[in-house]
Fold:
Amino acid sequence: MIVGLVGKPSAGKSTFFKAATLAEVEIANYPFTTIEKNEGVAYVKVEDVAREFSKTSNPKEGYVLGSYRFVPVKLIDVAGLVPDAHKGKGRGNQFLDDLRQADVLIHIVDASGSLNAQGEPIGDGEYEPIKDILFLETELDMWYLEILKKGWERFARKIQQEQLELAEALAKQLSGLKVTEEHIKEAQRELNLYKNILSWEEKDLVALAINLRKKTKPILIAANKIDRKSSEKNIQKLKQENKEYKIVPCSAEAELALKEAAKKEIIEYIPGEEEFSIRKEPTEKQKEALEFIKKEVLARYKSTGVQEVLNTAVFNLLEYIAVFPGGMNKLEDSKGNVLPDCFLLPKESTALDFAYHLHTDFGKNFIKAFDVRTKRVIGKEHKLKHKDIIEIAARK
Ligand SMILES: Nc1nc2c(ncn2[C@@H]2O[C@H](COP(=O)(O)OP(=O)(O)OP(=O)(O)O)[C@@H](O)[C@H]2O)c(=O)[nH]1
Ligand SMILES: [Mg+2]
Structure:
């Protein structure tokens, strides 16, 4: 699972990245602080299902905190995107190629409205965040369009001459963007795009680019900087004006402060929670910062929102599910680790998909599977649910 961060300069992408991964990255209040991409590991949060069996899991990857299990996902932070990036403004849109393999994008928006479209500081609330949502979507679509148009005429002639199947050939061409044959067939149905490929016009390519971008790079809006007063009104407005997107308020800066305080053992904090507790006496300055976060962020929004942004992107927008391999007789592996693995799978994944995910041999030699909770036998085609614990029985 790969999650990409996008947004205009200074919206807080690198701050969000650092809060989620605790990697050392550059953060500053001038545009284009980030030039080279940052890659790191962030986590989505699920209940620790081992607790149902009065145990605590021992993840091979990720970690357990309290009654939660944090499951790794890859996070990528890139340079800021500005209007007309596809025409070369700002740092252009070439760097978006770093996000080709992303499954979902989080658009970090400055909800406080204190940056212009180029990411330069202006007065609080002077900019309408809705404008960012619109321009950013256009830039992503243009990115797809440019990739699609590159060598199009030659491609179209080849399809025609060699009588190739369009969906198959195009999917091969766009597989770097995670476009599949099924996506293209669906797009053709939705756009009624079945005419001879040599007669496709610009508008057909535009429609196809937009359609495929939406399918393969869905966007979640992270309305960042909720610690600033002007954000509240803007977020209400955003939600009213925009029914198409899921919008999750957050404060990357508050989350970063809490994570760092927890790392220094000043506080005890479980990401995504409404509260933290003091472990050792903070300095006056730390105390002030913590109180500010408590009052202005946690009390108002019930969390800093960063964890919720990640969880919403993976579990609500993409509708992925977390599935645990486990035995009917015991949850431990041969080394005694409780539920060491957890896999994130696309929605509608079946028991057979899961078997293949574990090992090709399990898939090939699949006999049946068991739902470890209910102790029931399940078949190949059985669709798995979020948090299922499954044992696969396969021929040796
Ligand atoms: N108040 C507030 N400030 C924030 C928040 N998140 C980021 N900032 C500030 O916004 C400024 C820009 O943050 P960055 O994380 O560097 O922004 P970016 O989107 O990575 O910017 P570029 O790399 O230039 O594209 C810094 O001064 C951050 O401290 C937040 O949640 N609240
Ligand atoms: Mg940055």
